[in-house]
Each structure stands twice: as structure tokens, then as C-alpha cells.
Design goal:
This protein has 9 helices and 13 strands.
């Protein structure tokens, strides 16, 4: 039975990964300090094949017994979170990556880093291929997340080249689904506002674009990447690009909501466009999103209705 450590495993994406690895027959060790993760995300998967450790991955790491895979997903992931916790965000991207890489090397485990589309910054190339180096403001407020992930990628490649560690890097574009927190990200914010009759808040004029990938699609892409031999970064996301204004209108239409749309000032360094070039994922992994946007949104809306106790 393979044995896998998933840091940030009580978070939104991490908990879905824990489920998938258990379903694939792995013994799963979930490590999370619950800074942004939630214990209720993993309550339903407790078993003799699942172990939870509450720990900050920037501190000394010790796992007894063998490990076959280490997946580093611990990090604040929303602008509100990493702007409120800038030092923790930098530390988990730098020290956390270093500690988990050292553990993977000691255990001779395959290592996967959760990187992000944010490493491309406010892109000057569209859509963004893995060969694009990005347009990032290192000293802006978003730099704490962007540069933490960019440093993490550099550290992973250093361990791969210098120590010969078997590594993977996934660059995750906007992912949504059940178990998301109300952390300011656009999908939970719009759904919650529409369900409760409040105005949908758009930053800027709503002309900035995003593409949204349902969590099951993202997890499948991560699984395929881990099981491949590809050491260089791979984009995982969706290509159904739309403006934020169009996305707000879609949520209102799906819910039949009468909520209005309001506009706020655009945050500093907010990307104007964001959409992955998936050529590499299709070619190397044979992967592209299968669950369409509307179906993913329906499942996510049902989750938030249950959370809000709305029938």
C-alpha cells in the first residue's frame, strides 16, 4: 500500500486530494495547522488508512515509517488570506517547501509542489504557457504569494537537479467546488451573495478575465501529473475564459437571483487576464477538464445551500 503525505490536507483542494488518494488505495497522512484548513473537511474520511497531524510545516518535520509520495499544498490561497498573513504565506512557500523537500529526499519519495497561475503575475502573454516567465511585482502586496510560489518552484528544481529527487510542479489555475471557504475568492463570494440577496461585488469594471476549473478536474490532472515522469511545471486549469462581469451574470441566471451588481476599486496588481495554455497537459498527461463549468457550479451551489440551510 503506497503511503502519501499531503500538507494542507484539511484545506479545500487538499481534502479532495486526500479523498482521491484513499480511493486509489493509499494510506494518507494529512498535515495541516488549520490556519485556513478546516477539520470538518476531513471528518468524513477518518479511517485506519487516514491519519491527521496538526502541525505547521515550516517547523521540524518528522514522519515515522516510509513515504512514497509527498504533496505540498499548505498555503493561504486567497488574496484576503495572504494579505492578512503575509509572513506565514512567505514562510510556508519557502521554509515549508524546504522542509517537505528534505523529508521527501530522506524518504526517497516522489515530491509534488502545488504552484499557481499567480507565478505569471499580470501576464503579457495570453493564454499562459509554461514557458512564459511571468510579469510579477515582487514588492507589491500580492508579491508575498506570487514570490513564495516562484521561490518554491526554484527550490523544487534545485532539489531535482542537485539531489536527483523525483519531483513534479503543478501550476493550478482558478479551481472551485464544495468545501471552499468564504475567503473572498470570486466563486464562493458570488454564490453566497446571490443566495442571500446581497449585491454581487465586482472589483474594477468587471472586464478582467478568468477561467474556472471544477475541483474534480483539477484533482484528476494532479493525479496524472504525479503518476507521470514530467519534472517541469504543468498547467492545470480550464480554458473557458470569461469576464468577471459575465461570470457574475451567469451566477445570477443559474440561481434566478435578483441581486444587483456593485463595483469596487480594483486591487493593486490584480491580473487583467488569466487563462492557461493546456497544450502540455493534453500532450503529456492526456488530460483536459471533463466536468463542464455549469455542472461544477450546480454542485458547488448545492454545497453552499446546505451550508446556509437554504432549500
Amino acid at each position: 500500500m503506497p503511503r502519501t503525505l499531503i500538507t494542507g490536507g484539511a484545506g479545500f483542494l487538499g481534502s479532495h486530494l486526500c479523498e482521491r488518494f484513499l480511493a486509489e488505495g493509499h494510506e494518507v497522512i494529512c498535515m495541516d495547522n488549520l490556519l485556513t484548513g478546516r477539520i470538518e473537511n476531513i471528518d468524513h474520511i477518518r479511517s485506519d488508512k487516514f491519519r491527521f497531524i496538526k502541525q505547521d510545516v515550516t517547523e521540524y518535520l518528522y514522519i515515522d515509517g516510509p513515504l512514497d509520495y509527498v504533496l505540498h499544498f499548505a498555503s493561504p490561497a486567497s488574496p484576503i488570506d495572504y494579505l492578512e498573513m503575509p509572513i506565514q504565506t512567505l514562510k510556508v512557500g519557502a521554509l515549508g517547501t524546504h522542509k517537505t523537500l528534505g523529508l521527501a529526499r530522506a524518504k526517497k519519495a516522489t515530491y509534488l509542489l502545488a504552484s499557481t497561475s499567480e507565478i505569471y503575475g499580470d501576464p503579457l502573454v495570453h493564454p499562459q504557457p509554461e514557458s512564459y516567465w511571468g510579469n510579477v511585482n515582487p514588492i507589491g502586496p500580492r508579491g508575498v504569494y506570487d514570490e513564495a510560489k516562484r521561490f518554491g518552484e526554484a527550490m523544487v528544481m534545485a532539489y531535482h537537479r542537485f539531489h536527483g529527487l523525483n519531483t513534479r510542479i503543478v501550476r493550478i489555475f482558478n479551481t472551485f467546488g464544495p468545501r471552499m471557504r468564504q475567503d473572498g475568492r470570486v466563486v464562493p463570494a458570488f454564490i453566497d451573495q446571490a443566495l442571500t440577496g446581497r449585491p454581487l461585488t465586482i472589483f474594477g469594471d468587471g472586464g478582467q478575465t478568468r477561467s474556472f476549473c471544477y475541483v474534480d478536474n483539477t484533482v484528476e490532472g494532479i493525479w496524472r501529473l504525479l503518476m507521470s515522469d514530467e519534472a517541469d511545471p504543468v498547467n492545470i486549469g480550464a480554458t473557458a475564459e470569461m469576464t468577471i462581469r459575465q461570470f457574475a451574470e451567469k451566477i445570477l441566471e443559474m440561481l434566478g437571483s435578483k441581486s444587483e451588481i456593485t463595483f469596487l476599486d480594483l486591487p493593486v496588481d490584480d491580473p487583467k487576464t488569466r487563462c492557461p495554455d493546456l497544450s502540455k497537459a493534453k500532450r503529456i498527461l492526456g488530460w483536459e477538464p471533463e466536468v463542464p463549468l455549469e455542472e461544477g457550479l450546480r454542485r458547488t451551489i448545492e454545497f453552499f445551500k446546505q451550508q446556509l440551510k437554504i432549500k
